[in-house]
Amino acid sequence: MMISFITLLRRELWEHTSLKAIPLTLLVFILLANLAFFFFVSTSNFTFTINTDTETRQVVNTLDYFAQMEASKQAVIINGIMITTGMIINSIMLIVMFFYLLDSLYGERKDRTILFWKSLPVTNRMTVLSKLSIAVFIIPVIIFITTGLANLLTMALQSYTFYHHQYEAGLLWQQVDITGLSMFSIFLLLQQTIWYFPVMGWLLFCSAWCRKSPIVVAVLIPAILVFIDSSFMLGTGFSEIIVERLPLGIMSMQMGNESNLMTYPYNISSQQLPGFNMVAGIRLPSVEDILQFLMNIKVWMGIIIGIFFTGLAISLRRWRDDSL
Amino acid sequence: MNALISARGLTKNYGRFRAVDHIDFDIRPGRVVGLVGPNGAGKSTTLKAILGLIKYRGSLEVFGRNPRVDRADLMHDISYISDVASLPDWIRVDQLLDLMESTHPSYDLRKSLNFLARTDISKSHRVKQLSKGMKTQLHLAIVMGIHARMLVLDEPTLGLDIIYRTEFYDQLMNEYFNEQRTILITTHQIEEVEQILTDIIVINKGKIVINMPIEDIGKHYAQLKTTKDHAEQARKLHPVFEKDMLDEAVMIFENIGTERLIEFGEVSTPHLADLFVAAVKGTHDD
User: Fold this and answer.
1) In chain A, which residues have their Cβ closer than 8 Å to the Cβ of B95?
2) Which of A17, B35, B71, B223 is the most buried (most CB within 10 A)?
């Protein structure tokens, strides 16, 4: 049974090539961005002004400016770039996940391959859970690996940039917090997966339920309910729940949104850097933070709703054939 | 011998349309059964019920199990080929074989590879690169590797040319079929399977109109080839089907002794294709 389940996971990766192609494309973009920095930015002797509360400085060369910074400020910039890169990868992969889940049970009916898949001695439960596992386990792992590779690529190329311009090659490596970044990424992915679990269940359900355009139904039904709730001021709290759960993708980059539990533990005392609006350093969530998150009723309601919609998707697939 | 499939009062509605209407049938082991009927007769719906793909009313037992709840278990014993379009286009042949080996406990990869070695299909081909005929060969290669007790074929040669169609059934009978195995074929092209069937079930408008072993057809039906002069008298015996051929008439009679027909002309056992037309046309005329 375990072998069958692993094979089903592999089958999802065979079919949905975007799960591999998009991370690879992102890595190529990051490579190009680094090369652009190497060839254009690092060699340009231009002047720009940074205004801070205390002074206005004229900067001549980016590398020169960076090399002369205090170590703590260098760390903020380096780790900030790493986090931002990770957030961009994370946001894009969440969009990929959104479309993957919507297509996962609808696509097999649309192309009639469901007749073939159902000719295998594999239960509907195992099939649907394999698709959910891609969203819950595989995509987060892909995000983690891609982020790691992207950051490694950036560090390696920019270290060479520094070396090439006669700066200390190890400068960046001294300031980057690899353990902190890794733990940050792991906690973020765990928390994000738990937080978005009901959305994943809903998307799977729409994919199994809709006879056409699951994306329209998946977006329209919550939108209509929010519209009714807010227009007639029914005060059901539904709008707030939806708004909290639906900012898939780009919005998840927002830090410090009180309604967004996901970013809460990382929104730490912001020691503002002159000219930059970035969190200074990485603070991992404490046991208290994690417990606070796990004891939140919203988290458990979300998990229950996610399980409910997944159960419905399994049940619906039992009676789905190639007749859409 | 116990039936592998037993249906009683099997009924399926799609909204107000009744696709299958209270049908009863049994399928015994070691048989090649043709479930034939015109387009929209209810053949594929019956198959989908057998395979546990749809809800239905009535009683249906497949290998002693209820297909509505035991589909995945049933697929250990049943191998199913729908028409060639159901294989995923994106999959590579090696991935498909890998998938079969990992999900079917008794799958024999060597048998599939031996079969594929005699075709132009390579392991690096994707299904979308294959012609319809090659897709059918690939499907057959998979079937060869599955140690299933029953093979269900739903219009397996749809869209294939005569060469591939003939080759498909030749390979099926020579390399797959044996007395431990049962084959259930649905088709509306009876002429291409009539040589291999041991039993026939003709379904039309959701109802079974003929259900019997091939060897019993001669006991129940007789075909009379007569001249126009004798045709009028023969018609008084109420043929179920009649067609005119130049200066002759061909009639099919049901449950009538051949001694009563022989005085009008040449009596023989009807061809399945004629019987099929007779059964379907008869119910059309009702």
Assistant:
1) 11, 14
2) B35
